[in-house]
C-alpha cells in the first residue's frame, strides 16, 4: 500500500506532466517531486540553477519546471526551504546505472549525499501511466526523506549505512578500520596508554645504511627522522666510541701479554 507521501509525489509528477528522455530523467524528477511534496518551493532549475550565485542571490519567486532536463546527464534545482526560508541547491548526476544526488543548504558546511540505483526504482519503458514508470516508490521516498531532507533540516543523525567507514575512539576522532580496499594507518607520535604510560611511536620504513631510522619504540634524534646533521654527528660519536673501545682492548691485551 502506498504511503501518503508517495501518493503526493506521484501527484506532483502527474500535475507537472514532464517529458522524460531517459530513465535517469524519471528518477531525477522523482527527487524534485519529493522536495516539492515536502513543502519546498522551486526557485530555479536548469541553466539558472547552475549559476555561481544560485544560493546567494535573492529569490525572484517560484518558477516552473521549464528547462529542468536541458543538460545531458545532469540536473539542478534550487528550492526555498519551508523550515527557515533558506535556499537549497540540489544537483543530480547520471553515472552509469546510478543517480548521484548532492544537496547543499545555504550556510551549511558541506552537502548531503545519496546514490540511487536506477534499476531498483524505475520501471520498464513504455508504461502508459506515470505511476507505472516507477517502482518501489515508498522505499525511494523514505530514502530521500532519511538521507537528504531530514539531514538538511538537521533533524536526523547520520545513519549506520553511511559511506564513511571508521570507528570513533575515546577522543571522538574517527580511526580507519581494516577492510578490503581501505588502508589502516598507524597513529604518528607518542600514544598515551589509559594507565598514563607514554608509549614511544613506531616510525615508518625509509631508513638506509647511511642514515638509519630509529627502531620501534625509540624516539628519533632532535633533527628528526631520516637524514639530518644530528644523525651525522651521532655516527661520528659512534665511530669515536668504537675506536676508543678498540684502543682500550689492545692496551689490556698488551698488559696481559707482559
Automatic annotation (TrEMBL):
| Keyword Membrane among UniProt keywords | yes
Compositional bias of kind Polar residues? 152-164
Spell out the InterPro entries in the cross-references.
PI31-like (IPR045128), PI31_Prot_N (IPR021625)
Q: Which residues form a coiled coil?
A: none
Q: Where is this region: Disordered?
A: 152-186
Q: Which family does it belong to?
A: Belongs to the proteasome inhibitor PI31 family.
Name the chain's protein: PI31 proteasome regulator N-terminal domain-containing protein
Q: Which UniProt keywords apply?
A: Membrane, Proteasome, Transmembrane, Transmembrane helix
Q: Where is the PI31 proteasome regulator N-terminal domain?
A: 18-154
The transmembrane residues are: 231-250
**Keyword match Transmembrane helix:** yes
One GO term describing the cellular component: proteasome complex
Specify one Pfam family. PI31_Prot_N
Specify the superkingdom.
Eukaryota
Amino acid at each position: 500500500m502506498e504511503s501518503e507521501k508517495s501518493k503526493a509525489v506521484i501527484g506532483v509528477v502527474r500535475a507537472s506532466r514532464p517529458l522524460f528522455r531517459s530513465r535517469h530523467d524519471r528518477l531525477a524528477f522523482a527527487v524534485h517531486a519529493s522536495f516539492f511534496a515536502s513543502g519546498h518551493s522551486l526557485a530555479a532549475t536548469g541553466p539558472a540553477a547552475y549559476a555561481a550565485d544560485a544560493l546567494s542571490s535573492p529569490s525572484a519567486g517560484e518558477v516552473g519546471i521549464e528547462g529542468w532536463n536541458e543538460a545531458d546527464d545532469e540536473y539542478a534545482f534550487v528550492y526555498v526551504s519551508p523550515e527557515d526560508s533558506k535556499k537549497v541547491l540540489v544537483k543530480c548526476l547520471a553515472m552509469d546505472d546510478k543517480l548521484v544526488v548532492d544537496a547543499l543548504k545555504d550556510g551549511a558546511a558541506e552537502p548531503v549525499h545519496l546514490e540511487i540505483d536506477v534499476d531498483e526504482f524505475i520501471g520498464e519503458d513504455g508504461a502508459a501511466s506515470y505511476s507505472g514508470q516507477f517502482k518501489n516508490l515508498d522505499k525511494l521516498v523514505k530514502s530521500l526523506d532519511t538521507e537528504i531532507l531530514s539531514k538538511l533540516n538537521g533533524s536526523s543523525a547520520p545513519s549506520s549505512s553511511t559511506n564513511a567507514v571508521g570507528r570513533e575512539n575515546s577522543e571522538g576522532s574517527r580511526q580507519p578500520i581494516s577492510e578490503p580496499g581501505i588502508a589502516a594507518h598507524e597513529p604518528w607520535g607518542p600514544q598515551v596508554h589509559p594507565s598514563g604510560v607514554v608509549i614511544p611511536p613506531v616510525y615508518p620504513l625509509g631508513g638506509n645504511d647511511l642514515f638509519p631510522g630509529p627502531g620501534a619504540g625509540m624516539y628519533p634524534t632532535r633533527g628528526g627522522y631520516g637524514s639530518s646533521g644530528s644523525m651525522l654527528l651521532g655516527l661520528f660519536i659512534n665511530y669515536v666510541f668504537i675506536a676508543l673501545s678498540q684502543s682500550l682492548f689492545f692496551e689490556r691485551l698488551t698488559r696481559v701479554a707482559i
